[in-house]
Each structure stands twice: as C-alpha cells, then as structure tokens.
Amino acid sequence: MIPLLLILIAVIAYALGALNSPVLLARFVFGKDLRRMGNGRASYANFTHVFGDRWGLAVMGVDILKGVIAVLLGALLLSIPGDGFPVIGKLFAGFCLMLGNIYPVQNKFRGSKGILCCVLTLWLADWRVGLVASAVYIIVIAFSQYVSLAGLCACVAGAPAAWIFISAENLKGLAGTLALFMALVIVWRNRGSIFRLLEHKEPKVKWGNKTEKKMRDSF
C-alpha cells in the first residue's frame, strides 16, 4: 500500500507545485492572461508590474496555501497504513511540491527557484527545523544583503537540522536524507546564482529600492 500512497502523494504534490500562482490570480481575479501582458512572463515581477505591488502578497499567499495543502495531505496519506509515517509524508510531499514548482511540465520545465517551497516544508515537518532555516536566512541576508545566498543557506541548513530534530517514527535518517535531497535540488536549480555570487555579479537587496521587488522572484 505504501508505494501506491507515495505515487499518489507525488502526483498531487507535483501538480500543486506546478500551478503558477501569478497566472492563476491574473485569470481568476482579473480575467486576464498574464502571458499576454507586460513582458509575457508568468512571473511574480510581471504580475506586480501589470496589476500593482499590493497584489504581491496575494501571490505569496496562494503559494503558501498550495504548499500547506500538499504537505499536510502527504502526512495524512502516509498516516493510513498502521501507525503511519506522517513526518516522512510531509517531507516527501514537500520534495515533490518543490519539483513541480521548479520544473513545471506545462511551462517546459522552467519554473521558480523553489526556496519558498523548501523552507515551508521544513516548517511544516518540524517547527524547530523551520526555525533554524529561517534564522539562517535572516542572519545571512542581514550581513550579506544577498537574497539568493540567504535562501540557499536556509535550505542547506535544513538538512542537518532535520537529522538533529526529527527523531519520530524511528526514521530519523530518512527524514534527514529527504531534507538533504531537497537542499541538493535547490543548490542545482540556483547554480546560476552561485556562479554570480562567486564572480561578485549577484545583485544585492537595497531596502526601499526597486531592487526589493526581486526578492520574490528568488523564491
């Protein structure tokens, strides 16, 4: 039964992750096709350029809602067999959600950076792991002003934190391994940012400046 449940979780979580929030909001709130407006991209930046910055929080809210549904559904489905493995279900669902967000099939496998999905999954899997990831994010962005570096460090920090804190279900090693896989995918997806950081070409966040709008696209 567990293999079938894992397949079901993977399909649902990937499908939710692949849903493009800016495109959905543009269509159902404004009745517009975002891909035919502005620069034609299905991105947060294009969405806020067309419809205004105040709708940016709505986009993030939809992304978070999708993530919560996918991760909690993963926990619910893997709780079915006997005592179940809800934490593993959360992390596996979050991993598949992240893959859908990064590599959406309907957009030729070109999607977002996956940072928000990763950090949200860590929070839902265990609040202590999420707290570590968020603390790392805040510290790194405060000292470096690099959003991309902060996001990468937060996701990478989630792997050892999962090994340390997630001891339920006698599957501590598996939980840490799933968190590690998430971090590796994030690093691979954001390799362009890593190269730019090494070459000192990555833009920094300038608070109060238009550069601040780039923060959401880093997720």
List descriptors.
mainly alpha
Topology (elements, then pairings):
Blueprint: H1 2-18, H2 21-30, H3 44-51, H4 56-77, H5 86-102, H6 115-125, H7 127-144, H8 147-165, H9 172-189, H10 191-198, H11 214-217
**Residue windows where pLDDT falls under 50 for at least 5 positions:** none
From the N-terminal CA to the C-terminal CA, the straight-line distance is 34 Å
Largest sheet: none
Percent of residues in helices comes to 55-70%
The ordered string of helix (H) and strand (E) elements is HHHHHHHHHHH
| Beta fraction | under 5%
Can you put this structure into words, describing what you see?
The structure is a single chain. Helix content is about 70%, strand content about 0%. The chain has helices at about 1-20, 20-30, 45-50, 55-75, 85-100, 115-125, 125-145, 145-165, 170-190, 190-200, 215. The chain is globular, with a radius of gyration of 17 Å. The relative contact order is 0.12. The mean pLDDT is about 90.
